[in-house]
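Course assignment 3, question 2. Fill in each field.
Student: A.L.
Task: Predict the tertiary structure for the chain below.
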Amino acid sequence: MDRILIIKTAALGDVLRTTSILPGLHAAHVPVRIEWVAARGAVDLVRTHPLVQRVHGVDVADAQQMAALQQVLQQEPWTRIVSLDDEEPLCRLAAALCTARLTGATLVNGARGYTDDAAEWFDMGLLSRLGKQRADELKVLNTRSQPAIYATMLGVAMGRPRLELPAEELAWAHAWATTHGLTDGRPLIGLNTGAGGRWHGKMLTPERTVEACVALKARTQLPLRFLVLGGAAEAERNRAIHAGLLSKGLDSVDAGVDHSLLRFAALVDRCQLLLVSDSLALHMAIARGVPNVSFYAPTSAAEIETYGSGLKVASTAADYCSYRPEASNATITTERLVDAMAEMLGSSGVANLT
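Answer field:
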């Protein structure tokens, strides 16, 4: 039996979208055992996947944990290692293991580097051997999605991400929705328009979020309800969005920010449409097939593959895809967002509701 190790620890959304490589790897190596190295906080995003036999949770910054993990992983040789994080401890780990084939980040002549077959991806990143200026240029010029690039570099068919939600989490979400009056059949629009505390260009302000919801309601004339979603860093802005929606006479529920990853995903799963930044919630929606409208200013829209589940609204400003936290998102107008949301509601059949 072949043994494959995937090293992809963070960020959370990146871990989830990387599960797109699993079907192709599995098909190319049957029979196979697949294991995954992830940050402890990301384990839940992978452990329920039916093609993953074991997840190793680790704190990359903890030298003792990394040493212990290396001892475990060195017990048997690997058929293939896919190393997708460029942090030095993970490059050292990939280089220290015995494998017939390594693709991705590793040590090259004692320094961080990457294998030639992974150049299309890593040439656009911080580790690029072409230099930062050329890496930034390649990011802007790129037209291929991350799953497509990964499939090419691994020599497998392109797959799609998958997030299996345990029955108990789905039942919890149903009970939560019932308690909050969200099971009466009216279309539920999820709102995850924040992006933590750093990426200001990724997010819509509470005022712009409310403006888009008011315009969507006016455009569709549907009995819409809104579910305000986000992480711990977004509690204050989410309260502002919720209050703003209520002040405009719209039905809104603030979901809170203290849910586990799988419970958060189960709430996303209940939405008929998600308006979302380039964030974990977007990748959850894609993995679960939830209709979505996503928007991009600092980051690349081309890298995101929605598999037909969503529409993307990208900035047309000069600093689009600059990976500058303050990149302008002014060209992501309410009209463009509402056009996309109305189209998605229509294509998913929600617009036929009365």
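Instructor remarks: The two ends are 55 Å apart (CA to CA). The CA atoms of residues 221 and 354 lie 9 Å apart.
Grade: pending
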